[in-house]
Design brief:
Layout (H helix, E strand, L loop, with lengths): L7 E6 L6 H6 L2 E4 L2 E4 L2 E4 L6 H9 L5 E3 L3 H13 L4 E6 L7 H11 L6 E6 L4 H16 L4 H14 L1 E5 L4 H5 L5 H9 L3 E7 L2 E8 L2 H17 L3 E7 L3 H14 L7 E4 L2 H7 L4 E7 L2
Parallel strand pairs: 1-2, 1-6, 6-7, 11-12
Antiparallel strand pairs: 3-4, 3-5, 8-9, 8-13, 9-10, 11-13
Helix pairs in contact: 2-11, 3-4, 5-6, 9-10
Protein name: DegV family protein
Keywords: Lipid-binding
Length: 288
């Protein structure tokens, strides 16, 4: 790194579900969201596992989530400044699904007087739909891009990424207010298996089919069609459904020539609490 090059730190939150090695190699700082049940609050990815949340949901325990506090972001940004950062680019899950990005913006305003430049990005996404943008941002920062260019790299990749998701039931999303109650009741009443997709930062219905097998067929079909339209990277997320996720990934490798490696990972406790066990999602992210 040349003496003239600014040290730009990249921050995200725990719902990016980045591969551990990539986050470490690119020096990405992750601020955890909170998962709350049994009267206690746990930091996602630090104090609670996806498996524990899945067990709690299956036992019909009430599980809620909470954004990080603005002070958590202030502390994070100040620590990065002490470590030599001259600017921070902070990339977070869709503001329509969490107040995390608002907390980051509040922290950025509090630190304006210190001279630390903080660029906050609402990814309008989650999971690796956001995560691919975070990785692009970190690579741009390492290559010497300006804070504005680093933020633009994250925003561009995230906004162009698509997420398609199968859930066993809409009940968990209804409880968390992430999808309309009427849709949840309709799906339950007719034993319909819902497919969702992310539209401008919000989860909306994409299709409804009668069986899990058909739902997974459609999930592969729509994701593969999207991925074949342009060179893209893919990721598969799941909660408590590793076999389903591996099957979907294998079928996508066959359906999308030249796709390369498809990372398969379990979503963390925060997203898991809202989508429920059995969920499988596919992220399609066009290469820059």
């Amino acid at each position: 790194m040349s003496p003239q090059r600014r040290h730009i730190a990249v921050v995200t939150d725990s719902t990016a579900y980045l591969p551990d090695k990539a986050a470490d190699d690119l020096h990405i700082t992750v601020v955890p969201l909170q998962v709350i049940f049994d009267g206690r609050s746990y930091a996602e990815g630090v104090e609670i596992s996806s498996e524990r949340v899945a067990r709690a949901l299956k036992a019909d325990l009430r599980v809620t989530t909470s954004r990080p506090s603005a002070q958590a972001f202030v502390d994070t940004y100040e620590q990065l400044r002490r470590e030599g950062a001259s600017a921070v680019v902070s990339v977070h899950m869709s503001g329509d699904m969490s107040g995390t990005v608002d907390a980051a913006r509040t922290a950025a305003r509090e630190l304006e007087a210190t001279g630390l430049q903080v660029e906050v990005v609402d990814s309008r996404s989650l999971g690796m739909g956001m995560g691919f943008g975070v990785l692009d941002a970190a690579r741009a920062a390492a290559a010497g891009a300006s804070p504005e260019e680093v933020a633009s790299a994250a925003r561009r990749r995230s906004l162009h990424s698509s997420i398609y998701m199968y859930v066993d039931t809409l009940e968990y999303l209804r409880r968390g207010g992430r999808i309309g109650a009427a849709q949840a009741l309709l799906g339950s009443a007719l034993t319909i298996k819902p497919l969702l997709h992310l539209v401008d930062g919000r989860l909306e219905a994409l299709d409804r089919v009668r069986t899990t097998a058909r739902a997974l067929d459609r999930l592969v079909e729509v994701a593969a069609q999207d991925a074949r339209e342009h060179p893209a990277e893919l990721a598969v997320h799941h909660l408590d459904a590793p076999d389903r996720a591996e099957e979907v990934a294998a079928r996508l490798r066959e359906a999308v020539p030249g796709v390369g490696e498809i990372a398969v990972s379990e979503v963390g406790a925060v997203v898991g609490a809202h989508v429920g066990p059995g969920t499988v999602g596919v992220v399609v992210s066009p290469r820059p």
